[in-house]
Fold each of these.
Amino acid sequence: MSILVPGRITGLVVMAIIVVLGIWALERAKRGKVRAVRELAGMAGLRIAAGRCAEMGRPFFHTTGHGGGGLYTARGPQHMAGIAILGYIARLCAKLGVKAVSLTAFPELIPVTEDTIRMAYLGEGKADQVKPDMVRFLSSYALAFKQGYIGQLTREKAGAASLCGAIWPSDALHMSEPGVIIGAMQIGGAIDTDTLSMLALTCDYVFLGEELYAAGAFASENPTQLSVMFASDIVKIGLVLLMIFGFILSSAGVKIAQLFTI
Amino acid sequence: MSWIRGKDVPVGIVFICGLIVTVAYFINVPAVVGVSEAIQTWAVVIAGFAIGLGVVNMVVFHSDSIRKRASGQWPYSVVFLVIFVAQTVSGFFDLAALKNPVYVWLYSNIFSPLAEAMYAILGFFIVSAAYRAMRVRNIETAFVLVSGLLVMLTNAPIGAAIWEGFPILGKWILDVPTTAGNRAIFIGTGIGTILLGLRILLGYERGYIGG
């Protein structure tokens, strides 16, 4: 019996390459070799949205969505990325005196989001502005969660809303269309292409796929973290070259695709 | 132990657990796979305990809302607390079968209709969102309009009745440009997920412990 699981060896090799490149980029950045990275439009959108909330005296709502699973499921990374964005929103809100509100579908996210908001306000010297109602658990049942979100968003007339994380396609439209109706500025972010198409219809800014994960690095405002974007770009260039190489070999009759099934 | 800072312990636990679960996905060593499964079971159990936290959070929020007479919110909070208590208490009787008449009545006559109403609302939301999407303001939105119309004519029987080429064009849009775009996003997302995992395991990304 092989030690490596058959069918997963190619995945292991690809992951190892990405990890090695990521560590190399991080180490390179630690030595001061930081590459300039173009800021994501969504990050500017978050700043504009927080400013809008301050001008209107309205709260800034955030949710990482329902998405069919919480932190310990395959949806975990998306919730994590959403929480990193919440940290950035909370810092902006603390600076501008805006109330940041996080609505969550999973109870295990309560302590995480509470800590994120508290640390952000504490970091800006506004610990006194942290209130218990800033983190609200609604329901782990998707429809009840959406109803709660829509109800509280519209009753409190949020100035802006961020739907970044594990968002389902139907959730995306259910939860963002009421934001359009009340005139809230909205920033969406998801990895599912079906969800992205819905968010594109209703949101002013959208973090597309990988950008959702990259937003966490931008939110940290740490050049070392941003350097992993460089590794990501190198991998993507490599994959494009691999696709061209594969196209040529496949056209020449070489069965290259079988190499990737080991 | 001053050399261990406050957040080093959780970061260390995440690193060890993350490494074991990742390695176990790729290797056939029963001991490692067993530990990985145990870690994942713990995660489910710990998350299960958090439901109590969720109940406390909801009760505190709605009680405060009533106490402060929060504008627009407090009547709903009263409704929530009444139904929450009724549903919970009735659920304790006939716990195994959940056949208590009050529980079943509340579920069938309050919970289910409200849940179904959400699906009904979606139809109206799709229409208003589609209207916004189909407004031609520049060349990109013109592409959206034309592609959308072609795909609609592909799926609706009237499309093929008008012209046999509509289903072919619509299928091409779905199979070629749409699939190409989707795959580009999938590849980028896969790379992004691995790099986020790396940042978490190495302790750069600490959002889960408050940043």
Amino acid sequence: MTRLSALYQDVILDHNRSPLNYRRMENANRRVEGNNPLCGDRLTVWLRMEGGVIADATFQGLGCAISMASASLMTSAVKGKTRAEAEALFNRFRRMITGSGEPAETESLGKLAVFSGVSEFPIKVKCASLSWHAMKAALDEPDAVVSTE
Amino acid sequence: MTGAAGQRGSGGATAAKSSSVGTGTDSAGAFAAPLPGRTDSLLDVNRIRADFPILRQRVRGKPLIYLDNAATSQKPQAVIDAITRFYTAENANIHRGVHYLSERATAAYDQVREQVTRFINARSAREVIFTKGTTEGINLVAQTFGRTNLKPGDDIVITAMEHHSNIVPWQLVCEQTGATLKAVPINEAGELELAEFERLLTDRTRLVALVHVSNALGTINPVKRLVAIAHAHGIPVLVDGAQAVPHLRVDVQDLDCDFYVFSGHKVYGPTGVGVLYGREALLEKMPPYQGGGDMIATVTLQRSTWAALPAKFEAGTPMIAEVMGLGAALDYFTDLDLGKIAAWEHELLSTATARLKEVPGVRLIGTAKEKAGVLGFVIEGVHPHDIGTILDDQGIAIRAGHHCAQPVMEHFGVPATARASFAFYNTLDEVDALADGILTVKKMFTR
């Protein structure tokens, strides 16, 4: 697999083309906008927290294939997780995409491991993590704007 | 400080225009041979490329194809040498020392100002201010001319195709003075709505600020005509020439503009140096931009008086080495045949435009009749950043994003575009590689 095909894996391209959880959530109790001002990527993440658990997560926005697919898989991955579990997952995900994680840890990320190729593209780290930053901010603040800068 | 003068002839542009131009059917072999003969048709590109050491390298295992010239151009050896030579043998502060090196550096610095004066055909060197770039030139005018001439109820007219550097400085001065900023709209091709331009000018308009060549669209604005219209209303005009100077012959007296700004690094010179041309009568009336050394006549602890032009606007030790580099760049550039360069760049742009038009799903952003250097586009279903990343993997450098022109993106209803921008050292093989690369992008995203 070339460096490029490791980045743009079929799973990522599929999620880019038809992202999961791509909708505004009417009964959300958390909403955060994420911006990547240098490249203009912008997305909104909605969460519904029920008793300390993420009952639902959705997003909408525009960005490159990596940021779209990452938001699609992030919203799927955090559903049903507690706040602590979601944050721990983000930490592991971040270690993987920055290339500082152990291989075993990457494997434990399941479907999210498809983003391991990002570590070869430092410029794409922000794209892959934008929706995660927004999700984390939504856990902390019910209504906020986060920026990758 | 004479740069590359005399090192290069006018190029072997004798061969008739090759019939294979732009067919692109031999794409598999695009990298196999060094530039085939067809690129010699208008300009001796091979000889010119030899002057740019950076173009010899491979990136990502492929020959570098540099199509991000609107962001910054590459530098000929003569420019690199001029800067090295200055720091190796000539470095001293200027306008200060009585010693040999300072005397020489001062003379060389002032000589480049004379050179710029001739390059843009200013009336005198007093009208040529060195800045750190286009952005600083515009901010200088906004904070001096703007602040002293704007009152609540006044307005400034810009256009909807400006770079952020010709929007934000005016927004700042409008906030400071209570003036209003208005923008001339653009049409679907990315051309100014000329009827709207005249309609927006009122007796409260204090300045028109507009771009000569759009960095996002490539549109060449009819600046001379627009200046004449504005002057008929008694309104001075600032022209942002950052993208024009590398492609067009600029004559500030012919344009009759009141301010003209550009950057050295887009015209094959170093970063950190640019030029503000200003009509002497206006510059005389403007207060200083920054205070410090070199811009004063006398200083007491109570008050100071200002140096004469152009020193009044050049506080502190300037970017001396960069000015030397700019001098070498202008020597190099003016030594080329600008007519041939323009014809060659037009050939590159029109060939690339034709190739991209053939690709289903590609939409060109910026289709003005008069264009220079820039090819903006989007591909259906593919974000411009992904285009940029995939092309980069093939050694092709383009820009993807909003190009510091978010209002332009909004006008075309896109979050970003991909932009290939050309310089005279680009080749038709590189255009082919770009077109092939775009087919690769499409293949990846539709598999």
